[in-house]
Amino acid sequence: MRELKFHEQKLLKKLNFFDYKRERNVHEGEIMKTFAIKKRVEYLQYVKHARSIYNVVSVLRKLPKDDPIRIEITNQITTKLFNMGLLSDKKASLSALLSISASQFASRRLSTIVVRKKMADSMKKAVDIIEHGHIRIGPSVVTDPATHVSRDMDDMVTWIAGSRFKRTIDEFHDKADDYDLLGC
């Protein structure tokens, strides 16, 4: 190896080889690919929400365990996060709240719920189906795959009336109704 020139040595002094910025992008890219997140801003919002929960919990942990404010706020936060679908237990502890990550927020996206309900084979197909307006939550049609689906809304995710994707799936599974096949 050749000896480095003066300006090259000066540049190397400014680099930190142990904490390279792009290493974090690998994890970020994997999550964005797994959940078919098209916009990096959406992922960064999930990270921001997870970090804010972490900050609130870390402040709460500094309070004494028998403090009524700590108990009340902990109950409110766990109830809210349980209803959002981020926690599996309504009576979770503060240590369970510390483990909430951006991927848990991403797992409650509408596209993920559509795949989980086996309405689509992959995340990419789920995103396409949602963007084309074939999925509804309750009575309203949703075209944004980043829509957060809470526990209460989980059962209301269905096909729109007369969806060609629903018709094709029903034909494949021999569940098609004659009335639906006529396109009525």
UniProtKB/TrEMBL annotation:
SMART domains, alphabetized: Ribosomal_S4, S4
Subcellular location field: Nucleus, Nucleolus
Ribosomal protein is among the record's keywords: yes
Coiled coil: none
Protein name in the entry: Ribosomal protein S4/S9 like protein
Family statement drawn from the similarity comment of this UniProt entry: Belongs to the universal ribosomal protein uS4 family.
GO cellular component: ribosome
UniProt keyword Ribosomal protein, yes or no: yes
Keywords on record: Nucleus, Ribonucleoprotein, Ribosomal protein, Ribosome biogenesis, RNA-binding
Domain Small ribosomal subunit protein uS4 N-terminal: 3-107
Domain of life: Eukaryota
Domain RNA-binding S4: 108-170
InterPro entries: Ribosomal_uS4, Ribosomal_uS4_N, S4_RNA-bd, S4_RNA-bd_sf
